[in-house]
Amino acid sequence: MAKMSFENHIMKQFDEELEEIRTRLMEMGGKVEQQLKNAIRAVSEADSKLAEEVILEEQRVDDMEVDIDEACILIIARRQPAASDLRLVMMVTKAVNDLERIGDEAKKIANHAVILTEQSGSSNGYPEIRHIGNSVIRMLENALDAFARFDADAALRTIEEDEQIDLDYKTALRELVTYMMEDPRSISRAINLLWVIRSLERIGDHAKNLCEQIVFVVKGKDIRHQR
Amino acid sequence: MAKMSFENHIMKQFDEELEEIRTRLMEMGGKVEQQLKNAIRAVSEADSKLAEEVILEEQRVDDMEVDIDEACILIIARRQPAASDLRLVMMVTKAVNDLERIGDEAKKIANHAVILTEQSGSSNGYPEIRHIGNSVIRMLENALDAFARFDADAALRTIEEDEQIDLDYKTALRELVTYMMEDPRSISRAINLLWVIRSLERIGDHAKNLCEQIVFVVKGKDIRHQR
Question: How many CB atoms lie within 10 A of CB B88?
């Protein structure tokens, strides 16, 4: 075994710590993605049991946010990272917040799945929710993938996906309002669907934030709010 | 004038830098509070001109977020703060995000004010929006005040205000749905009001986040997601 200098040893520990928060962020991303998929399935398949599971599991996502955030502060305090290492740690403290909010929206969707199932017992599968839901799942997957590979170009391409989601969101809203006007008895149910679609649109925004943070880590450039 | 050691000099610069990001955060808070007040007034007084102003001014809030965030990263890189100083800087990078999102919700409210004014020309003053709006303004003021004084107890008291806002939000939603069912011609208008109320409820959540961050700086304790 090669002899390792004290400094190299410290550096190696530091690299391992950075690698660990990256891994934990990816784990949290995977968990949140699963929550989102389950929430959408709970709505479209009118599966209250699955919805309850999503609601219960949100707590784990919350805990992950607090734990990873604490690890980030410890790394900054102990290792005093600079340049891209510091950007990575700062990115992770922001990213866990966006992931937690995605988890929160997934829980809200699951709450509406429970109400929708109570209201009608079965569903027509809600094609518009499955459609937007699939786009949002794909966008989140692409964002997490871009983070895993530190791929700024992939992150920039993923940001563009949000436009189509916003368009689909607006179309779905208009359809819901028309539907409510034509059949006022459907209002209560339609309002629940409206919140689900709104949550999906918000998740797209959070996935976009994740991508902007990836560009920040890789390129050192803050591209938020560019007009 | 007393002679100042090199170390004291560095410490003084550091203190000044910390004080500066605090001041800038307070300025941003003041700006966001003004945006919120104007947005609510634009709805209740059917004032499209004021609404347009809020929409235009959002850009300044966005710029403040990016600038303060950059200043925080520079302080960490140059000064390597520890303990409560580090917590303060980390808190500020999170707080600017919540303030920016409050600004974003204020802009959304202003957008709905424009549509509502087009739809009807005048308004009944929307007492429910003024009521929840006033509670949310007060909560944000209290949060900023707790931050200015680093007062964890005031922050904890302010967090409790969010419960009443959530209750008022739910009541207002139920009333809107009843209203829509009774008069389906009002649906389009009611949906706009529904988004305004939702934005107000979200702003309450962000003010709560600010308070949790204040407790974190002062007490070193992460109280998010406590059940």
Answer: 22
- B225 phi and psi, to 5 degrees? 60, 30
Q: pLDDT tens-digit profile of B28-39?
A: 999 999 999 999
Q: How far is A187 from chain B (nearest CA, A)?
A: 7
**Which chain B residues are Cβ-neighbours of A174 within 8 angstroms?**
none
For chain B, how many structural domains are there in total?
A: 1
Residue A137 has pLDDT above 60, yes or no: yes
Distance from the A45 Cα atom to the nearest Cα atom in chain B, whole angstroms? 26
A49-108 residues touching B, CB cutoff 8 A: 59, 62-63, 65-66, 69-70, 73, 76-77, 80, 82-83, 86-87, 90, 93-94, 97
Radius of gyration of chain A (CA): 20
What was the ipTM of the complex prediction? 0.93
Please state, in angstroms and rounded to a whole number, the distance separating the CA atoms of residues A214 and A220: 9
The pLDDT value recorded for residue A1 is 46
Q: Does A77 fall in a domain?
A: yes
d(CA B204, CA A185): 32
Domain-located, residue B24:
yes
B62, B184, B225 ranked by CB distance to A62: nearest = B225
Which range among A25-29, A114-118, B209-213 shows the weakest confidence by mean pLDDT? A114-118
A93: chain B residues, CB-CB within 8 Å: 90, 93-94
Residue-number span of the structural domain to which B124 is assigned: 12-219
Cross-chain Cβ contact B77/A93 below 8 Å: no
Residue B45 within a domain? yes
CB atoms within 10 A of CB A95: 27
CB-CB contact of B33 with B144 (8 Å): yes
Query: Is residue B227 assigned to a domain?
Result: no
The model carries a pTM of: 0.94
Residue A125 has pLDDT above 90, yes or no: no
Residue positions counted in chain A? 227
How many Å from the N-terminal Cα to the C-terminal Cα in chain B?
54
Nearest CB among A77, A97, A224 relative to B66 is that of: A224
Torsion sign over Cα A116, B167, A205, A181: positive
Q: What is the mean pLDDT of chain B?
A: 94
Residue A53 pLDDT greater than 90, yes or no: yes
Q: Which whole number is the average pLDDT over B192-203? A: 97
B5-23 pLDDT tens trace: 777 777 788 899 999 999 9
**CATH code, domain with B180:** 1.20.58.220
